[in-house]
Structure formats: C-alpha cells, structure tokens
Write a structure and sequence with these properties.
Helix content is 29%, strand content 21%. With 284 residues, it is an alpha+beta fold.
C-alpha cells in the first residue's frame, strides 16, 4: 500500500496508529529483534466505515540487548527518527508512534507496500549490485566488491534528489544500519525508509550504503532545513525538543544538536570515518 501524501492523510494515519485497536497478523522471523506484523483497526464509530492499515509493531520487551546501545531505547529511536524526518521535511520515514500494544509499549509504524507481503516492497530498488565498473546512467557508485564465485561487482544507488535527502537525514540521525533493503519506493514512486532503531547514538556510528555523495557540498535546500532544525533543537521549550527529550537519553539529544551544527559548518556530505565500519552488513 502506498504511503500518505498530504498533511491531512498523515494526520489520519497517525491518529489511527495511535488510537486504533491492534490485531496481530504474524511475526517477521528474520528480524534481529521482535517485530510483529499487525493490522491497526479504527475504533468502531470513529469513522463511517471500517478502516484498517497494516503496520509493524516493535515492543520494547522484544529488544535484544546490544553492547553499544542502551537497553530498551530502540523503539524510542524509531519514533524519534520519524519526528526528525518530518521536522526536516524529507518525509522519508513512514508515520510512527509509541504506544501500548499486545506485548507492551513499543513503536508502531505504517507498513509500506503490499499489505500481504512478508517484507516491505516498493516499485523499484534504489540500491543495486551491478558488474564492476558498469554504473548505469543516473546512478552513483558506492563501493567495489566481490560477488558469489569471485565475480567483481559494484554497489550503486540512484542519483536522485529524494535519495540525497535521505542521505542527509541519515547523517543527522547518525544511522548505524542503513542497508539497501531499508529503502523502497511505493507504487507512486515515493521514497520510504524504515528500520531506524540503531540511530541517534551520542557516539559517531554512521554506517550506510548512501556514500555516493560523500565529500560533496550540501545543497542549499538541505542547509536551510538544517538551520531550522538547529534553531528548534536550541530551544528547550520547542515542541521538537519536548518530543525528543521524552524519546531519547539526554546525551543523545545533545549529540544530535552538535551533529547538526557540524553539518551546517562543514557544508558537505560526511565522509566515512575511521575506527567504525562504513558499510552495514549485509549492505543490501
């Protein structure tokens, strides 16, 4: 199913995700943490007809302890990523809320693509593996590697304006797990990204497949978005800060503000750093 387009549609989806009843459909078995496929159904009488949207529910109690992220914080990071994506105006993260569910409090995020498919699917891939050195027109090479049987390959991604915005968002989020499969286009061609539990850590952890613009100047539109975000983060009473302070540890919010300020000063897409893997595994 396609994602919401207008602010009115987004508001309706958020209200449904927050207030609707949750019906368990099944479990996503290949997820590293408990991820439950659910239907969220509008309360009887709240709308003239039954409205159901598929969603992914990730309860806090199902989070596997990690050595580098504080325990019980991944669901909050999923929601904080939605909050920041919306605040910046990139619209990449599907609507996401934090609420009580069948297995306790967790994040509930709108499912994008075929509502009956076991994985979120889109109209086309935005990250691909091609024969080495054969980057298609309109695509950007990321890294050369070796495929099955020793075949030389190149990982490429689209050279698209909305995907470039997603790369900026990942830098803001300090996304530590941007795999190619975490980015899809819906039937209308709109870009969506998901799986944002490993984000917003106070230590530098950017690990992504979207390195195609590394070191290039940020677009003016991105710098304008970052300036607005920096201003909101500096105001402890702003709606944005209030939301983030409730979702994240204090150190992570302070590091977010510092990261945004650094992006504005340096005015370039980040380059891979030292001491931390640049690519997630598996990258796709």
């Amino acid at each position: 199913m396609d994602g919401p387009r207008t602010e009115s549609e987004v508001a309706q989806v958020l209200d449904l995700l927050d207030q609707g009843s949750i019906e368990v459909v099944g479990r996503v078995v290949d997820a590293s943490n408990l991820a439950v496929l659910v239907d969220v159904v509008a309360a009887e009488g709240s709308l003239p007809q039954r409205v159901t949207r598929r969603a992914i529910y990730k309860p806090v109690r199902g989070e596997r302890p990690l050595w580098d992220f504080p325990e019980g914080t991944l669901a909050g990071r999923e929601v904080a990523s939605w909050v920041l994506s919306r605040a910046l105006g990139y619209g990449v993260v599907p609507p996401t809320v934090l609420r009580e569910g069948p297995y306790g409090v967790g994040s509930v995020q709108l499912w994008i693509g075929d509502p009956f498919a076991p994985t979120q699917t889109g109209a086309s891939d935005v990250v691909r593996v091609v024969p080495a050195g054969r980057t298609p027109p309109g695509w950007v090479a990321v890294v050369d590697g070796e495929g099955p049987g020793g075949r030389a390959v190149t990982v490429v991604h689209e050279d698209a304006a909305d995907l470039r915005g997603a790369a900026v968002l990942d830098a803001v989020l300090n996304n530590s797990d941007r795999k190619g499969s975490h980015l899809v286009r819906d039937g209308a061609g709109v870009l969506w990204g998901f799986d944002h539990g490993l984000t917003l850590h106070e230590e530098p952890k950017l690990r992504t497949v979207l390195w195609g613009w590394a070191g290039q100047p940020l677009r003016e539109q991105d710098l304008t978005k970052l300036a607005g975000l920096e201003q909101d983060l500096a105001d402890a009473a702003s709606a944005l800060r209030t939301s983030l302070d409730a979702l994240l540890p204090g150190g992570d919010v302070r590091a977010l503000a510092a990261r945004v300020g650094r992006l504005r000063r340096e005015r370039i897409h980040p380059r891979p750093g030292r001491g931390w893997p640049a690519l997630p595994w598996p990258p796709l």
